[in-house]
Amino acid sequence: MAEAILDALGPVLTRWTIGGSAISAAPTGWRDALGVDAGEAELRLLALSGHLVGTLALAEPPGAVRTRDDIPVLAQPPLPETLRPRARRLLHGLRETGPRRALLDFLDARGWTLHPGDWMPGKGDDVPDVYAAWQDWAAASGFPSSSPETLSAESWDDFGPAARHAAFTALRLRDPAGASELLAGKIAGETPDRRVRLLEVVATKLTNVDRPLLESLAGDRAPRVKALAASLMARLGHGETGGEGAAELADFFPVQTKGLFRRTRAIVPREVKSAAQRNRRTALLEALSLDAFAQALGLSPEDLVTAWPWGSDVTADRPFATMAARSAPDAIVAAAAEALTTSASADFPALVGLLPRLAPRQRRRAAIALLRGRQAGFATALTIAGGGGGIDDAIRMPAGTALLEALGAEHARPADQASELLSLGLLASRTAAKQALDQLAAAGLIASDPRLDMLRLNAALEHRRPTE
Amino acid sequence: MAIDLKVVEQLATDQASLKAAAGLARPGKWSGIGTSQDATLVWGECAGSGANPYRVMADLRDMGSKCTCPSRKFPCKHVLALLWLDAEAILPFPPAETPGWVTEWLGRRRSAGGASKPAASAGDKNLYAARTVEPDPVEDATATARREAAGAKRAQDTERAILGALEALEQWVGDQLRLGLAGFIDDVTARCRRIGARLVDGKAAALAGHVDELPARLLALPTDDRVHGAVVELARLVLLVRAFRADSRDRELRRAVSSIESREALLADPAVPRVTAAWEVLAERVSTRRDGLVSQTTWLLNLTEGPRFAMLLDFFPASAGRRGSVFTPGEQFVGELLFYPARAPLRALLVRRDPAPIDAAPLGWPEGGALEEALAAPLLIEPWAGERPVLLPPGRIGFDRAGAPWWQPRKGTLLLPLAGSAEGLIAGTDLMRAAALWSGRQLEMLSAHTPWGRIGGG
Predict the structure, then answer these.
(1) Do B238 and A120 count as a contact with CB atoms less than 8 A apart?
(2) Taking the CB of the first residue and of the last residue of chain B, which one, N or C, has fewer CB atoms within 10 A?
(3) What is the distance between the alpha carbons of residues A199 and A229, in angstroms, rounded to a whole number?
(4) Same domain for A210 and A276
(5) pLDDT for the residue A210
(6) How many CB atoms within 10 Å of residue A223?
(7) Cross-chain residue pair A71–B429, CB shorter than 8 Å
(8) What is the ipTM score, two decimals?
(9) Is B441 on the interface with A (CB under 8 A)?
(10) Chain A, 394-413: which have a CB under 8 Å from a chain B CB?
(11) Residues A201 and A270 occupy one common structural domain
């Protein structure tokens, strides 16, 4: 019945939309109730119509309404209910991508995920692989919420893009040769962005088995893919070598032999006389592969890294580190990281340049070395280590002592050292977090201090899976 | 760390604060009192003059404090009263886990700013004088008669002014129809502002506030819906005006047109319905109105008997600062509410709140009735009312061709459009039960139970 009256009101509403009296258009059955006075009748008609429309008229959707799939359950469970408020508070304070990613990695390392009611990843966000299924769901690409078990040529298109990337990463670890072959067949059908991301996975467990794949990409139409393929070839020792560039670069870095008995070779850089020279030197470091550079110096890549005078000239260290990250095999990069962290004055930007090539374990070791050597505060160490965490005895390191001193100082303010405390919370192992909380309480911080949120989350959160 | 009563005296800015604090330092006014395990923080909730209780907290290390009341005095009477309770052990302060709202305040403090320094002159403040209740001065008969007559005349003048304003409003409504609703919608803000000012002049303050917010309500609708929306809004005004003229003494109508009864008046009235029940906090909403007032609304669900829903509503000037939340969405408590008299009672005051029972399993939500009836009934009983809360049966969010969200039931075909967008978890899970606000046109979700747990709340 309501529909019939609502239809009958159509002309009334049209009249009012344009302006003017709608009485003559009123439903017949209402005429008596409206009365004779024109102004009064108009208002009564309005009251009746409006009340009806506002109470009984229900809108209808244009076309069908479709529900979306369920948000998939992830491989790891969401945080226990009791820890969610603390996690929410932390998320609220972590606006920048770096610290936010560190929190996600921290939780991942312990075997947990965030609850979807508290946070979900955005489409293009760089997040741990465990969240891939949520990214695909959010992209609403219509892919089913549960991906097929294994990634293969046949099942390639059945995966959502983020889930496919995660599955390919897992396949690469299990069966590097199979992954390489699979990618060789499928890569041409992907967008440039996805080609780059998939090729980046091939950097893990890179061997000569991957040469055919890399050679096939030498002519890729996307410059980033070409460059990445070339740099991976260089890491295998098949990069371009020689030429005048290499010789010119070698000239900047003469090799001397030192010592009477153990004849160690050391590079003593030639003094740079002008900005133009320095720029040229940097440009060469950025263009060549480490292999080519080593050859031109007459050294093996290993010897080059050993001979390099880390810490003597940061304007050389940084591009040299990037050169290694771009074009050297894993072992060389690890050696460079080792040398950097043990040198008297570590240059963090140089070390940061190597990070993309270091495994989480290596990153943690570098961070520990820095912390032990008094060279870094917790915030810097976090940048190096990433969110994997798990550093024991953190509060006992020099950075910890400095932190406790700063907190106990006379003019300490309530917001001081918040960043150091957050970083400490992300770096520490569970035992170390508990230790730290005890020490901080002794230093005067009350248990309810929100700066302690990360340490308290750390101390309360169980390990669901064994640490590395 | 029990503090010395002298400290309370020193902290007060003046004798008036002390006197007010003395009145508040009584057990019946407080709930949720606690102290941190290391006895450095104290907190509690105090029934103020608003619908929502105030949250009060103090850091005993430096006497820093915070209260969610709008007072400009620092420390306010609620803080003084809390400290007084501690100093004289009027109520026990059980050690407990520091609540989230206290931790958040700690995080926001700057060192010196939050700490109260003892006021310079302690000379004219006296704690014990504050506690003596002075008898009201006795009036002689003539003075009483004069006072009452003046009051009656004032009431008559106000009545006349209101009726005049309402007549102007009806005239204005007629004008909008004559000029055309298309033009009205295009110029709605300016036109509503003008008639709003006339209503304020005519002492119809509450109605003025309602009209002031009309443009925002109308423009929040999809473009295609706005003619319908305008007709509904204008009709509501006419219905209210006529209802008021028919019975201007009706409290609900007076509340909608001129002003709300004071908390004291309501507490003193034995006829006002009081309901003791178990309540769940559905959601909280804080929003700023056009006139600069900040409204803080808490929606409660009755888990036992009585009116299904309650709404606690307070207004604060924007200058009173950032509103902290008063309840935690999802929390359940036993409490006594006092409902403003109405045909379908909804707006209420929190009179008393019991400390939460220990180890209580959460109570489930009651069954909702037939949905279509639940949607229409309140709007039929009170034709001038706006949005009302409703319980939804099991359902899910779906999307139409244009990507707009709709709520659809698991059983049945009734589709209800959602206001705004639906992203994240709510769009990807069953909503086993849900509570929402229904405006007559759109749903606004308040909270829901899902397989992932409870969501929503604000």
Answers:
(1) no
(2) N
(3) 8
(4) no
(5) 92
(6) 9
(7) yes
(8) 0.80
(9) yes
(10) 413
(11) no
Contacts of B41 in chain A (CB under 8 A): 446, 448
Q: Which two tokens stand for residue B214?
A: 């009309």
Residues A224 and A251 occupy one common structural domain: no
Cα A92 to Cα A388: distance, rounded to the nearest angstrom: 21
pLDDT, tens digit, for every residue of B171-187? 999 999 999 999 999 99
Angle at B322 between CA B112 and CA A94, to 5 degrees: 80
- The pLDDT tens digits for B416-435 are 999 988 888 999 999 999 99
- Does residue B322 register a pLDDT over 80? no
**Same-domain check for residues A250 and A307:** yes
Do residue A162 and residue A229 come from a single domain?
yes
Classify the C-alpha dihedral B155-B158-B163-B166 as positive or negative.
negative
pLDDT at A100 over 60: yes
Residue of B nearest to A447 (CA): B38
State how far residue A453 is from chain B, nearest Cα, in angstroms. Answer: 10
| Rounded CA separation B194/B196 (Å) | 5
Q: Looking at residue B242, what is its pLDDT? A: 94
Q: What are phi and psi of B288, to 5 degrees?
A: -100, 130
Q: State the Cα–Cα distance between residues B426 and B448, nearest whole angstrom.
A: 9
Note the pLDDT of residue B317. 78
Q: Flag whether A366 is in a domain.
A: no
Taking the C-alpha atoms of residue B225 and residue B40, their distance in angstroms, rounded to an integer, is 56
Last residue of a domain, one of A31, A55, A79: A55
Whole-number pLDDT of residue A5? 80
A168/A179 Cα distance (integer angstroms): 7
Domain count, chain A: 3
Which residue, A218, A62, A437, A293, is CA-closest to B222? A62
pLDDT tens figures, A308-350: 988 888 888 899 999 999 888 888 999 998 888 877 666 778 8
Q: B399 CB near a chain A CB, below 8 Å?
A: yes
Q: Which residues on B lie below 8 Å from A13 (Cβ)? A: 227-228, 231
In a domain, A126, yes or no: no
- Give the pLDDT confidence score for residue A40 in this predicted structure: 93
Task: Give me the pLDDT at residue B232, please.
Answer: 94
Q: Is the pLDDT of residue A188 over 70?
A: yes
Using CB atoms within 10 Å of the CB of residue B21, give its burial: 0 to 12 exposed, 13 to 18 middle, 19+ buried. buried
For residue A223, tell me if it sits in a domain. Answer: yes
Please indicate whether, in this complex, the C-beta atoms of B231 and A81 are within 8 angstroms of each other: no
What pLDDT does B458 receive? 54
DSSP collapsed to 3 states, B190-245: HHHHHHHHHHHHCCCHHHHHHHHCHHHHHHCCCHHHHHHHHHHHHHHHHHHHHHHH
φ/ψ of residue B150, rounded to 5: -60, -40
Closest-CA residue to A441 (of A418, A408, A409, A414):
A408
Domain containing A220 equals 156-235
- Cα distances (Å, whole numbers) of residue A374 to A346, A371, A384: 11, 5, 15
Rounded average pLDDT over A366-377: 82
Amino acid at position A337, single letter: A
pLDDT value at A415 more than 80? no
Q: Two tokens at A145?
A: 């919420």
| Residue A169 or A141, more confident | A169
State whether A224 and A301 are in the same domain: no
Domain boundary residue, one of A286, A318, A345? A345
Mean of pLDDT over chain A: 87
Task: Identify whether residues A228 and A259 lie together within a single domain.
Answer: no
Residue A61: C-alpha distances to residues A262, A397, B416, B421 (Å): 85, 63, 9, 15
> Does the N-terminal peptide bond of residue B75 adopt cis geometry, omega within 30 degrees of 0?
yes
What confidence tens digit (pLDDT) does each residue in B377-427 have? 888 888 888 889 999 999 999 998 888 899 999 998 899 999 988 888 999
| A224 and A188 share one domain | yes
Q: Does A318 map to a domain? A: yes
